[in-house]
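Q: Could you fold this chain for me?
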Amino acid sequence: RGIGRALTERYLSEGATVFAAARAISTTHFAQAGGRLIALAGDITREDIRAGIVEAIAERGAPLDLLIAAADIQQAIDLTEIDAGSFAARAEAEITLNLTVPLVLAQMLLPLMRQPGGSIVNLTSLISRQPKPGAPVYSASKADLASYTHPPQQQLATVAIDSVPTVPPQDGPEPYARSTLGKQLAAVEGQPVRPL
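A: Sure. Below is the predicted structure, expressed as structure tokens.
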């Protein structure tokens, strides 16, 4: 959906092979991919699903050139009306998907990244810089993701892997997908969708 789908379309149109992970993926939209789309269906907040993603990428035997963390969730939360238990559950869900998963998955995939030349791109949000009053946890999680991206820039420079935070434009996913970000992904062989 959204930016993830638009980026997948962009990379496929340029001849790259794409590993796309989401809870639900319809490959009918990508019928022209010619086997270059490796669609991995599963909830990436689960440790076993993340392990399956790493395994699927490792099986291809080619280094990973680009990892883009695009999955997120934004929930409207009114702090004056929500009880502590409900807030804790909703906050944990947002922080897990928006912050913990990108950090952990990047660390899991680091040994498979192209060295030198790999890139880790964390999609943040304009809200990370201008918090949205109705989405306090989303705002905080995206600000934290943007902030976290900088220390890896320094540490990963020793193995020539870039770590980049980026804010998608507000005019929709397609213009973003057509940007220069799409030029960093190299191809590996594809296979059909498989559940993890």
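A (continued): The first helix runs from residue 2 to 13.
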